[in-house]
Amino acid sequence: MSVVAWLKRSFRGQGRLDPTTGMLGIPSSNIRPFAKSDMDACRSLYTQNERGRFPPGYLQTFTDSLESPAQLFLVVELLGQVAAVGGIYRTPESPQGCSLVFGMVRPELHRKGLGTALLLARLAILPRPTGLWWAFLSSAGGSSAFFERFGFQHYGRHALPPDMREFDCYRAYLEESDWTACASILHKRRVFLTREAVQVPIGPAIPNTSLERTREG
């Protein structure tokens, strides 16, 4: 982390999301809810990203998540092609908590700003906060550095369904101004985000003390 980034993080407070991280690198794109016609493209994205980011044998878990009404997935379209996908749902244990799940970008498009756009879009799609929103995620190791840049902090390792494998878990909070900034940044970077009539569902409860239960990658 650079000195400038460290000073910025210290001023904002530990664990608070910084939506401005990497904003200038976000390309113009279209972000919309997942449709059944996206299934093959999203499964291909998963297999391309599986090594080093997801545990082996989780493709069916990812497929089931895409089809679950308890999770909302967004896809990022670049030049008419699905370039990234990621899910989100609200945590029943925390009224203003959400979990980010299965976020991934086509490998040849890594470090091109699409991951940043996908993160901001998933948070912008949440209802307006009345206090703080807490965002949770877990990682098998491949994405932790990316999320730490935005202010996510590690809070332990937890056994998560479906097979109760242990994952590193992270969290960050955002205030109303940060939530507003997520949508504003996307608009300024000419990212069209479909928000009308889109609601983030409440996911299932989990049998442990962690508020997170699926993999971001």
Q: What does this protein look like?
A:
This protein has six helices and eight strands. It has helices at 3-12, 39-49, 59-67, 114-124, 144-149, 176-188, and strands at 29-33, 72-78, 81-90, 97-105, 133-139, 153-160, 165-174, 191-193. Strands 6-7-5-4-3-2-1-8 form an eight-stranded mixed beta sheet, with helices on both faces. A hairpin with a 2-residue loop joins strand 2 (72-78) and strand 3 (81-90). The longest helix is centred in the C-terminal third of the chain and has 13 residues, at 176-188. The model is unreliable at 1-7 and 210-215 (pLDDT under 50).
- List unreliable stretches of 5+ residues: 1-7, 210-215
CATH superfamily: Gcn5-related N-acetyltransferase (GNAT)
Total separate domains: 1
The coarse overall form would be globular
End-to-end gap: 21 Å
Radius of gyration: 16 Å
Using DSSP, what is the number of strands? 8
Estimate percent helicity.
25-40%
H/I helix tally? 6
CATH topology: Aminopeptidase
How much of the sequence lies in strands comes to: 25-35%
Mean pLDDT: 87
- Along the chain, the helix and strand elements come as HEHHEEEHEHEEHE
- Biggest sheet overview: 8 strands, mixed
Q: Which CATH top level class fits? A: Alpha Beta
Instruction: State the strand order across the main sheet.
Output: 6-7-5-4-3-2-1-8
Give the structural class: alpha+beta
Q: What's the CATH architecture?
A: 3-Layer(aba) Sandwich
